[in-house]
Amino acid sequence: MAREVLKLHDLDFCSRPQLVCTSKYSYDNKDLAVAPYGDYWRKMRKICVVELFSTARIASFQSIREEEVSLLIESISSSLLVPVNLTEIVNSLTMNIICRVAFSKKNKPGDHKSSEFFRLFKEMQALLGSFFVADFFPLMGWVDKLTGLRARLERNFRELDAFYEEVIDEHIDPKRVRTRQDIVDVLLHVQDNSLDLTRAHIKAVLMDILTAGTETSSATIIWAMAELARNPSIRRRAQEEVRNAVGGSKECVKEGDLNRLRYVKSVVKETLRLHSPVPLLLLRESMRTCEVGGYQIEPKTRVYVNAWGIARDPKTWEKPEEFWPERFMDSSIDVLGQSFELIPFGSGRRVCPGLNLGMTTVELTLANLLHCFDWKLPNGIRTDDLDMDDAPGLKLLLPILGPAKLKKRKRITIQTPSRPKKASHNWKFAPTWFSLPPFPMAFVTEIWGLGAPPAWASSHPGRLLSGYGEADPQAT
Predict the structure, then answer these.
(1) Where are the domains positioned within the chain?
(2) CA end-to-end span of the chain
(3) Which pTM was predicted?
(4) How far, in Å, CA of 464 to CA of 240, rounded?
(5) Measured between alpha carbons, how far is 348 from 111 in angstroms, rounded to an integer?
(6) Tens digit of each residue's pLDDT (9 = 90 or more) over 219-233
(7) Rounded to whole angstroms, what are the CA distances from 303 to 49, 127, 450?
(8) Which CATH number fits the domain 2-471, given the four candidates 3.90.1150.10, 3.40.50.620, 1.10.630.10, 3.40.50.970?
(9) Cβ-based neighbour number of residue 294 at 10 Å
(10) Lowest CB count within 10 Å: 15, 82, 169, 393, which one?
(11) 99 in a labelled binding site
(12) Whole-angstrom Cα distance, residue 232 to residue 36?
């Protein structure tokens, strides 16, 4: 069914619905991710594919990725006797990479502007994960004003807009010292040759890059490390491959070494299969009447593609609930959108244009974590004790990692919440991407035959994709 929607009828279903929050943050759909299909979208996609995410452009940011990963390794190495929250560090890594690639800035401890931007960004994620009544009942949009969501949205948008204005002003300042060309520089250059590209378009594209390129990559990295902690034999095989390919002479893995790491790439694919960063792909909307699976679909119908269900379909996958990277070693299935058994980045015209940038970041970080450290669970924690249930949200419930020093090689221990026998943890859920009401979620996944929602969807049906879990240290 997904093949029909995303390939045979791709042109019929390649538009996006106009939602309150995404329309606001995209400057009235002037971005690429949520813009309706048409001449404008085709022009923006060409700019993004040719100018922003081409192979040459991604390669030009190689030094940024390698430098930030090296700083990550140094940070862990310098804190071997103090517990380290690897989730927090990896989130900071991906954010710094994206910010440096986009507008040559990064989070500096103690810097007020950096702290303020991260506060605004987290508030934006919370609003993107909020339920706006107007998205489903347009005539009742006044409810969003009563709840205060509209006011929060307007306030956060104004503050982010002011930040982007400052970034653009800095880039057009003739006194600015340019070390390398970032994405804002590229977009300003395109604007000089195109009267149709305004500041609003540039800010909308920046919003896409920030929201799509940060937590998706960090979540994949942490899930991979959690699965490797639960499967020591797989971890050892991945480490042996990295260390044999790189050798003992190198302190860090470079991007040039990644093509030799076939098993590590399989680990990443298997992680994306079991823990898709976006379980339901971004909404699609039909543009004309068509027939799918014997059903007549009317225009303006919203379509949810359950990538999570597809990736765990027992009709397609052998041992679908097991973490088994070997399934990809001699398989032609990839994550580029051509294999409909695995579509974490979407497929067709709406496939993510920055997937190569994200995959490179994930593979480089994971390879270095395996190369530079040995990993084991803390004393007293068994692999069966690890709670690997997906929590609702774009960013899922991830483990916390902490280091411990050994005599020979640096060894990092993994601390992750074990499943308590009694109620010992309170889990707080903060919205991160978007919420869906209970009826459409359960209904659409069944009507399209893309697999049933996860078991926990029945207990949290309206927040299936709305937040991430965080342990409450005050819980008793």
Answers:
(1) 2-471
(2) 47
(3) 0.80
(4) 38
(5) 42
(6) 899 899 889 988 889
(7) 25, 22, 11
(8) 1.10.630.10
(9) 5
(10) 82
(11) no
(12) 46
